[in-house]
Amino acid sequence: MFSFSERNHQYRFWISRSVTTAAWLGSYPKTTTGQLKPVLANKKAAIYPTIQNKHNKKYMPRPPKANMSVVPINKRVTWDSSTQRNKYIKAYIDKYGNPKWNWFNYDIHHVTPREYGGKNTFNNLFPLPREIHQQVVNSWWSSY
Q: How far apart are CA 14 and CA 96, in angstroms?
């Protein structure tokens, strides 16, 4: 684990390293090492969730950085759920085709939350089943 502090906030990046050694009778052992890229963890050391959209096969993007500061409420982008939600749904269908979901059971998740400066751009939005959004993703962010 690597961590750094900035203005009384602690940010954690977890890196997974492995060493594998295999040997067969009468041969020399072969050893390989590997390292995965850093992953984002919250204050409870929970790794940022990996969620795949089964329709378009895309994985929910991770926030581009870990040292995000809270943006004052009056400086955050607004989210008009009726207008901007419908705009996103139309753009999603135009790009990936109609998944034939009941969109009322889906939330539109901000990858970088508006609270941390996230915008309403297509690339910052990701459709999630409401239960996963509220119980998994929002739960992770509540401990950020």
A: 33
Q: What is the DSSP letter of 140?
A: H
Structure tokens that stand for 73 in this block: 């409420």
- Measured CA to CA in angstroms, residue 63 lies from 22, 23, 38, 68, 88 at distances of 37, 41, 12, 9, 19
| Burial class for 144, CB neighbours closer than 10 Å (0-12, 13-18, 19+) | buried
**HEC secondary structure over 21-40:** EECCCCCCCEEEEEECCCEE
Amino acid at residue number 82: S
User: What predicted TM-score, i.e. pTM, was given to this entire model?
Assistant: 0.74
Instruction: Give the ranges where 11-137 is alpha helix by DSSP (H).
Output: 83-96, 130-132
Instruction: Give the tens place of pLDDT for each residue, 104-124.
Output: 999 999 999 999 999 999 999
